[in-house]
Amino acid sequence: MSSSPLEPSPFPAPSPAPSPAPLAAVRAGVPERGDPPKYFQVKQKIDAVLDELGQGTPLPTEREFAERFGVSRMTVRQAIRELRLEGRVQRSGRSTVAAGPKLVQPLTLASYTEGVRRQGRRPGRQLIVFEQVGADAALAAGLRIAVGAPVLHLERLLLADDERVGLESTYLSVARFPALADEFDPTTSLYAFLRGSGVIFADADERIETVLASPREVQLIGTSPALPMLLMNRVTRDREGLPVECVRALYRGDRFSFTAHLVGEE
């Protein structure tokens, strides 16, 4: 026998679709349903404290934050961990201190030195490796030379006000720059040297992705193995379309951001 139309349906009525969260709530990190996680609320409160602290000022201890906000030290530790990944705080000795603003590097054919100086910081480079190697298949293709042809490999730490912020490897053809190893001071700008040698940079292909540093890179840069890094690979060419350099540069994700100027199609 069929059920009477007045009998309740054996299937529950569908739940109404949740209304979209207000834009302000979304910006504040509130999920679609419910309140944000406790660590995120603490993170926002500590972030507000950071706005009042000067660069390099030590933060209150985890215990002090836990007592102030009525949460566990584990919750405070997770909040500070995320703020460190975002570059808002950093380690200094045994303390956690307020970090300064990130270095903003434009995606242009300007050197690292020029970009840092424009922001009122003091650029520096520390030589790690200056050697001659044979080109592997990837380098040979990038520099348009034969596999095994001699290549200069220049690896340097990138500094900003003596702070280690990145690691850069540059590869150049020995046949094109035979005097580079004898005449170039590796603590100075390579782009300035090459321009002084008559090189005119015209264009480049560049790829940027997020990676984790290798154990060797972690040791050289002095960062955490869990800290996201920005990896940039670039091939730069001159006005004749000939490759000048292949570059692999690793930047600390908590200390760097990149900008680009975009124009619309005609």
TrEMBL record:
Q: Ranges for the HTH gntR-type domain? A: 36-101
Q: Which InterPro entries does the UniProt entry name for this protein?
A: Bact_HTH_transcr_reg, Chorismate_lyase_/UTRA_dom_sf, Tscrpt_reg_HTH_GntR, UTRA, WH-like_DNA-bd_sf, WH_DNA-bd_sf
Comp. bias intervals (Pro residues): 7-21
What is the top-level taxon of the source organism?
A: Bacteria
Query: Keywords, A to Z?
Result: DNA-binding, Transcription, Transcription regulation
One family from Pfam that matches here is UTRA
Protein name from the UniProt record: GntR family transcriptional regulator
Organism equals Streptacidiphilus fuscans
Organism placement in taxonomy: Bacteria, Bacillati, Actinomycetota, Actinomycetes, Kitasatosporales
